[in-house]
Amino acid sequence: MLTKEECDLMHRSMHGTMVENMQLHFLPSDDDAARVEMPITDRVRQYRGVLHGGAYLALAETLAGAGSLHVIGFDMTASVIGTEVSGTHLAMSPTEGKVFGAARLLHAGHSTHVWEVRITDKDGTLLSVERVTNRILWPQKG
């Protein structure tokens, strides 16, 4: 879904943000999923050493936002705003390495997009599933 150029744009636009702190790396793909990887570091762990549940949600909302930007052609006159994110954690996360997110579009309306984000470990074990709803705010005409 995301081209190399779109991934590069996302990386540049995340400078100085929480996303940069989380070290999210957007991955180009030629299928129907927006993809990202994130290292498991102290920046995203909870006190027991596993990935913090909030990091899963932040990854999902960010990835779905990038997907929505792709769907609208990276039209920067519009704003993509996450309006709802919920997740179910299915397995204990690894304490090191990386996790991988794949977001697939469930619904694309003019002003609302709904995504399913699946987060896995390096072996493909499903760790968490999120649903993200984005509102697309278009500039007012007139």
Our measurement of the CA-to-CA distance between the termini, rounded to an integer number of angstroms, reads 33 Å
Helical residue percent band: 10-25%
**The named CATH superfamily:** Hotdog Thioesterase
Number of helices: 3
* CATH class bucket: Alpha Beta
From the spread of the alpha carbons, the general shape counts as: globular
Number of strands: 6
Described by strand count, sense and barrel closure, the largest sheet is: 6 strands, antiparallel
What pattern of helices and strands is seen along the backbone?
HHEEHEEEE
CATH architecture: Roll
Strand content: 35-45%
Outline the low-pLDDT stretches.
Answer: none
Mean pLDDT, rounded to whole units? 96
Structural class: alpha+beta
Strand order of the largest sheet: 1-2-4-5-6-3
Rg, nearest Å: 15 Å
What do these coordinates show?
With 142 residues, the protein is α+β, with helices and mostly antiparallel strands. The chain has one domain: Hotdog Thioesterase (Thiol Ester Dehydrase, Chain A, Roll). The protein is built from three helices and six strands, in the order H-H-E-E-H-E-E-E-E. It has helices at residues 4-13, 18-22, 53-71; strands at 25-27, 33-39, 79-89, 98-108, 112-120, 126-137. Helices cover 24% and strands 37% of the residues. A six-stranded antiparallel sheet has the order 1-2-4-5-6-3.
